């Protein structure tokens, strides 16, 4: 039986950029930044001129399970696959979300289905079990804590192609805290200033 590996935001993004896709993704958790960024990547998979036909964005409170399933079962137009993104799934009851387990147990091979529970954990256990069994991906986007913030800052710097000194990690932690969006933005600014492969030093942060 296939199982969904415990993946990180960076590893999922890397797989998507390599065009290594799973049939279904459940993105849930308190940290909305990572979910939003992954959704942008999923949307960009389909070329702009093909999005009217092969990109469907649905909102859970405004649709029903039968409609969602029908869209997922639809064949793509002039493409190998379509993307279906279900947003605001955190706004419906777990028993309703669980009804998607029937589709998740046998997902369409020509659909990449993305379920987003932004800001909350998905409580739909039957759905999660079906996603794991079908080789899908479950990603819990957790908010940083004081305990893991240093490793997150170091990981962002590495992801941006930068080295970072221990003192610099402490400075960013003290200046920015656990705001992931700001951490990415500020480290991205440092990358633009310093260049790829550079080291983030306390002096560069102060400047």
Q: Could you characterize what this model shows?
A:
The chain is α/β, with parallel strands linked by helices and 207 residues long. It contains 11 helices and 7 strands. It has helices at 9-17, 32-45, 51-54, 65-73, 94-98, 101-105, 125-133, 149-159, 166-176, 180-194, 202-206; strands at residues 24-29, 55-59, 82-87, 111-118, 137-140, 163-164, 199-200. The strands form 2 sheets. A 5-stranded parallel beta sheet has the order 2-3-4-1-5, with helices on both faces. The protein has a two-stranded parallel sheet with strand order 6-7. Helix 4 links the parallel strand 2 (55-59) and strand 3. The longest helix is centred in the C-terminal third of the chain and has 15 residues, at 180-194. The model is unreliable at 1-5 (pLDDT under 50).
SSE topology:
Elements: H1 9-17, E1 24-29, H2 32-45, H3 51-54, E2 55-59, H4 65-73, E3 82-87, H5 94-98, H6 101-105, E4 111-118, H7 125-133, E5 137-140, H8 149-159, E6 163-164, H9 166-176, H10 180-194, E7 199-200, H11 202-206
Parallel strand pairs: 1-4, 1-5, 2-3, 3-4, 6-7
Concise overview:
The chain is α/β, with parallel strands linked by helices and 207 residues long. Helices cover 47% and strands 16% of the residues.
If you average the pLDDT, what whole number results? Answer: 92
Number of helices: 11
- End-to-end C-alpha gap: 53 Å
Structural class: alpha/beta
What's the total count of β strands? 7
What is the molecular shape?
elongated
Q: C-alpha Rg, in Å?
A: 19 Å
Helix/strand order = HEHHEHEHHEHEHEHHEH
Outline the biggest β-sheet: 5 strands, parallel
Q: Identify the strand order in the major beta sheet.
A: 2-3-4-1-5
Instruction: Extract low-pLDDT stretches.
Output: 1-5
Helix content: 40-55%
Approximately what portion of the residues adopt beta-strand conformation?
15-25%
